[in-house]
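hi! just following up on the protien thing from before. the input was this:
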Amino acid sequence: MSVLDIKLERAFDVFDSDRDGRLVKSDVIGLSDKLAESRGFAPDAVDALRNSLAELWDTVFHQMDKNDDGAVDRQEFRTAFRARIVTDQNRIWERIRNMSNAWTELGDRDGDGMLSREEYTDLLHGMFRLPRETCDEAFDQLDADGDGQLSRAEIGSAMKEYYTSENYAARGNQFFGRL
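and the predicted 3d structure came back as:
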């Protein structure tokens, strides 16, 4: 299995919130509710994130359902994501960037436009239920300039590397923890 396939498997797992091996719209959109619940946000506080996840489902994930069963399985996800990256890179990155920006804004408690280690860890743990230790390790790898903060540029660059790079040593590969 290639490095990219390993990362796509992990991405599938973090989006598959009910762990049934199939992605449906409620899995993807439900991530915003998990974050709201974990952070004590009112449901409407995550509207921008919920809307960006719905748009990501409608424009990207839904298209992956090749057998029209209403869900995306692992193979459909991996195959379609690889194809979309090549053929529709600008549109898919726009959707991912919108989700990332909404996600970052929710986590940026002090309003400085950056995510501290604690803010990043709280976001990943709250939204994807990743272990806090995994998030701490990821933060260390993603903080490219070593300033103890993740900028939107660092987050965007890490996400792009995560979803495109076949280089095992790429910094962004650590977005959801060590490979």
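The first helix runs from residue 3 to 15.
The CA atoms of residues 5 and 78 lie 7 Å apart.
cheers
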